[in-house]
Amino acid sequence: MHANLEDFTTEEQQMRSNDRAHLVFFIWFFIVVIIVLRALYIQTIKHQYYINEANKQYVSLTPINFDRGTIFFSEFKKNPVPVAQLRTTYRIAIDPTQISDPESLYTKLSSVIQLDKTIFLEKATKKNDPYEEIAKDVDVDNVNLLKSKKLIGVSFVKDNKRTYPQGVIGSKVIGFVGNDGSRVKGQYGLERYYDDVLSRNSNDQSINFFAELFTDIEKTIVSNTDEQEGDVVLTIDAEAERQLHNVLLETRAQWNSDVIGGIIMDPQTGAIIAMDGLPSFDPNTYSQVKDASAFMNQNVSGVYEMGSIIKPLTMASAIDSGVINEATTTYDDTGFVMLNGYKVSNFDGKPRGKNTKMQEILSQSLNVGIVFLVDRLGTKRFQEYFKKFGIGTETGIDLPGEASGLTKNLDSKVFVDNATAGFGQGIAVTPIQTVRALAALGNGGRLVTPHTVDSIIYQNGDTKKIVEDDGDQVISKDTSERITRMLVTVVDDALLHGKDKMDHYSIAAKTGTAQMVSPSGKYYEDRYLHSFFGYFPAYDPKYIIFLFHTYPKGAPYASATLSDPFFKIVKFLISYYEVPPDR
Predict the structure, then answer these.
(1) Domain check: are 19 and 77 in the same one?
(2) Are both 258 and 159 inside the same structural domain?
């Protein structure tokens, strides 16, 4: 009995031993299969990748190639246009230990690329040195030509660099990529604002070969941020941006302005179609810019007293609240009024007399008329309307460095502070804030959110379309139509005596001229900011245009300096976008 149990135990142990052996064999077989498959994957699919990596480790200590997403302008009825992208160049190196005839090699290389012969021969004769770099920023065509010569001892290392093919066009919005001392990242504009989307963090790390053998470690090293990486497609149209830039150049040259800027926006959605300002810069050569203020986008970061283009907001507030009727209400225009010891005058100081109509406040840009409107509204209600228009608050535009403005007068209980704010003096706001508020006059009374990005195309193939909100209702749709009629009358009858009236298109517009503030806090007697805004087709607007410039020389009023630039842009937009007539 005992012997049989012992035999049984021995047989069972033998079976278990065989099972363990089979298991170990299976595990090792499985590992070998994985290694073989992984090796095949690396030697075939990833072959070129590791060749590049090996070359870089052998010939240079530079980091893994820089990588970054592309930014595209849109273009009407065409494919997107790259405005920020990577450009591939090469560094060329030689291995002097393999070079038997330096003179002959120099002749072959210098027939394609420019080389200093003395320096080349000095490097090529270092017989104990396996690596000497002889050229950089060589384009791919020249590299291919050199590769076809099959030169012994010559190697090529790929470099990716950020380039801006549109140059100065759109640079105030795009910004640039630079080194902040710790890493390369976006420094200004969209490059900075969307840096997390455009950056390719996975390229910041070197991957150990044996770690790569068993796992896609480069996918885990970025902590699941891959889905955030993508390319950015803008609402900004390449041709509209170029047109705006050229118009600003011409206008600044004609009037010798200090600073000039402009915005074209869809008032219904807040999509920025073009935005630019001068002085500007070429992001390809940003390091050569001596004054860093050129990098600032004055349309978003600059604050200015805008003057009379603010008057339509005051008029719309008075209409919407019901304190006046633009068709029947009149007032006595005395040419000036004294408020808290402060004299408020019309631009020419002249009275328009009793029974002055509301239309004349806009058509003749009457400051005394605005005082009348603010008095009818009352300071509390006036302030509430202006704050609903977003005056003094950031718009939320997807660009860095947005300023909120200087609008303490909208909290003042002193009537004169509110009265002057009603015609655009004593409060300083950004151009983008101004455009957003003025867009509400034409779009049915809604405060939209300005934005520059249409969509993000992620690396995994998904596309995120920017969803535009309807915006808060600031004034009624009826008020929007009524103030629009008044602004169309300004263009048809009053602006340069109707010179720019368009027979087949209704344009709603207003000019502004404001004294500029000196560093001492007082107003200059001879320096003005000129502004001009307008939207069209007036009763269902597709475009709102805003232009401004500081200290133009040779003309006192914005109607003289900005009317022609404004209508030049209008005519371009009509032609380019094939806008049908509305009258």
Answers:
(1) no
(2) no
**Alpha carbons 379 and 419: distance in angstroms, whole number:** 8
Q: What is the CATH number of the domain that holds 563?
A: 3.40.710.10
Q: pLDDT category, 204, cuts 50, 70, 90?
A: very low
Strands 330-333 and 230-237 turn out to be unpaired
Question: Please, is 253 exposed, middle or buried when counting C-beta atoms within 10 Å of its C-beta (0-12, 13-18, 19+)?
Answer: exposed
* 212 plus 248 within the same structural domain: no
Residue 581 within any structural domain of the chain: no
Helix (H) or strand (E) holding 12: helix 2-43
Work out the end-to-end distance of the chain between its first and last CA atoms, rounded to an integer number of angstroms: 115
At which residue do the structure tokens 């390319």 appear?
Answer: 231
* 268, 269, 270, 271: CA torsion to nearest 10: -120
Residue 63: pLDDT over 70 = no
Same domain, 38 and 138: no
Give yes or no: residues 168 and 244 share one domain: no
**Gap between the Cα atoms of 491 and 502, Å rounded:** 9
The amino acid at residue 253 is A
Name residue 472's beta-bridge partners.
Answer: 447
Q: Which domain holds residue 530?
A: 236-282+298-576
Structure-token pair, residue 149: 């010569």
Mean pLDDT along residues 321-346: 96
**Residue 110: CA atoms inside 13 Å, Cβ hemisphere, count?**
13
Characterize the bridge pairing of strands 230-237 and 71-74. Answer: parallel
pLDDT one-digit tens code per residue, 184-195: 889 999 999 999
Single out the residue of 44, 50, 546, 511 nearest to residue 273, CA to CA: 546
Q: Residue 200: its pLDDT value, please?
A: 81
Burial 145-154 (b: 16+ CB within 10 A, else e): ebeeeebebb
Count other Cβ atoms within 10 Å, centred on residue 572.
18
DSSP letter at 491 equals I
CATH number for 82:
3.90.1310.10
**Cβ atoms of 307 and 438 closer than 8 Å:** no
Residue 248 is encoded by which pair of tokens?
Answer: 């600003």
Question: Do 251 and 307 lie in a common domain?
Answer: yes
- Specify the number of domains making up the chain: 3
Which amino acid would we find at residue 115? L
Edge to edge, the sheet with strand 272-278 lists: 272-278, 260-265, 543-550, 523-536, 508-517
Cβ-contact 54, 47 below 8 angstroms: no
One domain, residues 132 and 275: no
CA 512 – CA 308 distance, rounded (Å): 4
Spatial distance between the Cα atoms of 52 and 153, rounded to a whole number of angstroms: 17
